[in-house]
């Protein structure tokens, strides 16, 4: 189809009629009660999960319903064009299992994909390209989760999302801000520009946006199942969009080389979670290829040796930042897809190794750059991986900070913590023509140049930061937490746990507190309004300093607390990302 034909065909898909009345979504960021609970960043998504719980669905059914609806209302963060990580707690069996449905590099992918002349290419050029697109894993993940642990069909769980895509939803300020940020990228791809821009500018807040193409895609899955995505016409449309990106006249972007075989062969992975302990809690998180679980565990192991409770807040926060810095130095150096790289995970998770790392912290003075440590002597088993031939590099990748996270629990105590993404806001920018979803740019999560464990390779999954986490106490669920935000995901989850357990904040306060993200880069990321505050000045006295480009919110976390009296409290953002939506099946204590 020529680019010129697109606007006409799609014009009926975008309804600007403000007179049409969409459901009024009133958001509540905190809700307590009994039965199932859900927290997402989108009211329609939380409502979708609740409706599935009320129909007798379990947490897995409800999580997929919420995720599919987020694909409609938050199409710049997530959707069937991307991938994700799900942590599932099965109450009856007291078992946690994780589902990796991360995008993989097509079989044609080469290590120099992002450095054709030996030099890393410009990040934004790499993002808006067919080459940035990994084989999407989301639909396979939803299928596998439902198939093994759900009770409902695609048809049942996709129904609420199909309704929102068909009836439309009103754009809020947050949506508009994200579309504005993407005007340049979306303008490259008419199918995307037509849907989300008008005369090259983001649609105004209050616009009623429908996505009948995505409703059709979901209906295809409802009737044809997972195969309808990974083979046939839809698969061909994905391959075409990747290999010949449908660009505006005069635009050229780098094509990818994805085949129908890449889609047909895509597999998710059931993986054992990363387990660690922290002050009487057991934390269960996402293993590689996400670096989230290991890095959070290492930082907490380092922090555990300090009596944080007895300290002034600023000193405890200084130590939190230093622990994060050290854990990130290791994360940046060692972690990558475990099917391609023997990462020294047991060493990184060992309490003895953490004790060595802790010795490097000066309780009165910030380090400005930490070197990776040597975890190999702490592997303590016979399967010690070979040390890499060259000293590990510890670099912080240029990466963007997006995605979405949702938390669901059901009346039987099953829990799902689910983070999924299309990588950058607006992914690669490429909408699959006629199918209404944007393709990811997950391949830019690889290191562009090596040697490094996380360089591109055919069939490899790029290292992630996604950190869906469940915490247990005395064998019972205590809380679950997760967030979007690229590598800041790790610090958001870590800091919220630290705020809650060490600073004694209740979960809403822990989640709403200003976020401080130290990732062993040049300076610490902070949010608007933090610099100059008493809290910031107190930390500056330890030599901490801030990235003054820090003008964005960090993360958009969602949590559920399982209270000792048997009630549940769903907690979403009280301020960030346009306020989140927390719901419980039966309100009140
Ligand atoms: N691509 C990121 C990751 O896997 C998530 C996207 C983001 O939040 O920026 O860690």
From TrEMBL:
Encoding gene, per UniProt annotation: ggt
Catalytic reaction annotation: an S-substituted glutathione + H2O = an S-substituted L-cysteinylglycine + L-glutamate; glutathione + H2O = L-cysteinylglycine + L-glutamate; an N-terminal (5-L-glutamyl)-[peptide] + an alpha-amino acid = 5-L-glutamyl amino acid + an N-terminal L-alpha-aminoacyl-[peptide]
Subunit and interaction comment: This enzyme consists of two polypeptide chains, which are synthesized in precursor form from a single polypeptide.
Family: Belongs to the gamma-glutamyltransferase family.
Pfam family for this entry, one: G_glu_transpept
EC number(s) on file: 2.3.2.2, 3.4.19.13
Alphabetical list of InterPro entries matching this protein: GGT_bact, GGT_lsub, GGT_peptidase, GGT_ssub_C, Ntn_hydrolases_N
UniProt source species: Massilia eburnea
GO biological process: glutathione biosynthetic process; glutathione catabolic process
Domain of life: Bacteria
Residues of the active site: 403
Record carries keyword Endoplasmic reticulum: no
Record note on modification: Cleaved by autocatalysis into a large and a small subunit.
Xref: SUPFAM superfamilies: N-terminal nucleophile aminohydrolases (Ntn hydrolases) (SSF56235)
Signal peptide: 1-26
Protein name from the UniProt record: Glutathione hydrolase proenzyme
Pathway(s) this gene product operates in, as recorded in its UniProt entry: Sulfur metabolism; glutathione metabolism
Entry keywords, A to Z: Acyltransferase, Glutathione biosynthesis, Hydrolase, Signal, Transferase, Zymogen
Binding site for L-glutamate: 102, 445, 464-465, 486
MF-aspect GO terms: glutathione hydrolase activity; leukotriene C4 gamma-glutamyl transferase activity
Residue span of region Disordered: 365-384
